[in-house]
Design goal:
Elements (H helix, E strand, L loop, with lengths): L1 H21 L2 H12 L3 H4 L1 H46 L3 H30 L4 H29 L8 H9 L8 H19 L17 H6 L3 H32 L3 H29 L2 H21 L2 H15 L2 H12 L4 H10 L3 H16 L1 H4 L3 H14 L12 H4 L2
Helix pairs in contact: 1-5, 1-6, 1-8, 2-10, 2-11, 4-5, 4-8, 4-15, 4-16, 6-11, 10-11, 10-13, 10-14, 10-15, 10-16, 10-18, 11-13, 12-13, 12-14, 12-18
Main location: membrane
Protein name: Fucose permease
Keywords: Cell membrane, Membrane, Transmembrane, Transmembrane helix
């Protein structure tokens, strides 16, 4: 029991690390643009390089888990993340940054495939729902804290003051004109530490359920005949594209149109975006006990549309609140779209989940499209592309016809039972 509890805590830490490495791009894009003299269009290739790795690696990672088991895949995933972060820390150029982000992205995709079945076994099936929510809180907590770490490093590295031994060490290895590169040294150390931890820990045997297995032969043929597979794949594509489109371009938008410092106030806005997204997940759990998930999706999507429009066209005082609020309204979208998808297709859930996870590549494509459009019409109008992705998510609330709807309570007493 002690060992299993330790594994559950370790999985929570892995969720934290995945988020810590994945969601820092938004705050640092303005610095990358300035440091490498990039156009906004070229900057769009940064999130593309990271999230396209999910589209490439999600299904192969599921096959690797079945063949080599969880420990080896975790080990190689963190080793890839370490190699990618160290590569860019040592050679901080734009070309290397694209390769680095792709390598780290493959590592993160491998981790995502492993950790949910592992969490189910380590914590017990009876506790899986609770542990899954806790894992999302860890995930959201890292997204909230990583922009703050970025601000701390940029303000203290090469500041002329000896803050502590940690900063002094970074002063010796980070170029003075690229202070934000210090983040990648931190990433490398964290990933290397996880490599050693995974190597030493004994993991329980995980027997995948039928709905967790990926069948690359008959299942694909069956699923590709079902139109809902395509429609819900696009739903995940649109959601992750929306999330990353907001997270990656908001700080640059605030800098461009409101002269907001991306290292301080811009980073804070992104931090609160992820923080409110996490808080929204908790409220979403309550709402899903009270109302049909499609109605919750409609309500929250309308809120997200309004928040993004206010952020884009309102004054600075409103934008500083509206963009974080869009994170709050986006909070329930992933879980509702996935649950509606799995409840709409009665077979091959493991392979279907792999296809849905490939939709995370939307986080690669949508920020890239926004960056390309920004070259033509400016970033403000380019970010209106989010109305298309949000509009598609809104449509799901109307056309989704799940075979099983989410269970709702009949009285307040049931909510706590």
């Amino acid at each position: 029991m002690k060992r299993n509890t330790f594994i559950v805590i370790l999985i929570f830490v892995i969720f934290f690390v995945i988020s810590f490495l994945s969601n820092i791009l938004g705050p640092i894009i303005p610095d990358i643009v300035d440091s490498f003299n990039l156009s906004i269009g070229l900057a769009g290739f940064l999130p593309f390089a990271f999230f396209v790795a999910y589209g490439v690696a999600s299904i192969p990672s599921g096959i690797l888990v079945e063949k080599y088991r969880e420990k080896k895949v975790l080990f190689w995933a963190f080793l890839l993340a370490f190699g990618g972060a160290l590569l860019f820390a040592l050679v901080p150029t734009f070309t290397v940054s694209l390769l680095s982000l792709f390598i780290i992205g493959i590592g993160m995709a491998m981790l995502q495939v492993v950790i949910n079945p592992l969490l189910r076994v380590a914590g017990g099936e009876a506790n899986f729902a609770f542990n899954s929510v806790m894992a999302q809180l860890f995930f959201g907590g890292a997204s909230f804290l990583s922009p703050m770490l970025y601000s701390y490093l940029v303000l203290n590295v090469h500041s002329g003051q000896e803050v502590n031994a940690f900063i002094s060490t970074l002063n010796g290895i980070v170029p003075a004109e690229l202070k934000w590169v210090s983040l990648y040294w931190v990433f490398a150390v964290v990933a290397l530490l996880m490599v050693f931890i995974v190597k030493m820990v004994h993991f329980p045997e995980v027997e995948l359920k039928e709905d967790e297995k990926i069948d690359t032969q008959n299942a694909f043929n069956d699923l590709l005949k079902n139109r809902y597979v395509y429609l819900f794949f696009l739903g995940i594509f649109a959601y992750v594209g929306t999330e990353q489109g907001i997270a990656n371009w908001t700080s640059k938008f605030l800098q461009t149109y409101h002269n907001v410092d991306p290292a301080t106030e811009g980073a804070s806005v992104i931090s609160y975006f992820w923080g409110l997204l996490t808080i929204g997940c908790i409220l979403g759990l309550v709402l899903l006990k009270l109302f049909d998930s499609r109605r919750v999706l409609l309500l929250f999507t309308v809120g997200a549309i309004v928040s993004v429009l206010v952020g884009l066209f309102g004054p600075l005082e409103m934008a500083l609140y509206a963009f974080p609020m869009s994170g709050f309204f986006a909070s329930v979208m992933w879980s509702i779209i996935v649950s509606l998808a799995l409840n709409s297709v009665p077979y091959h859930h493991g392979t279907f989940s792999g296809i849905l996870c490939s939709g995370i590549a939307g986080g690669a494509v949508v920020p890239l499209i926004i960056g390309g459009l920004a070259e033509l019409v400016g970033l403000r109008l380019a970010m209106l592309f989010l109305m298309i992705t949000l509009g598609y998510i809104l449509s799901i609330g109307f056309w989704a016809k799940p075979l099983v709807t989410n269970a709702t309570i009949k009285s307040w007493k049931e909510l706590f039972s």
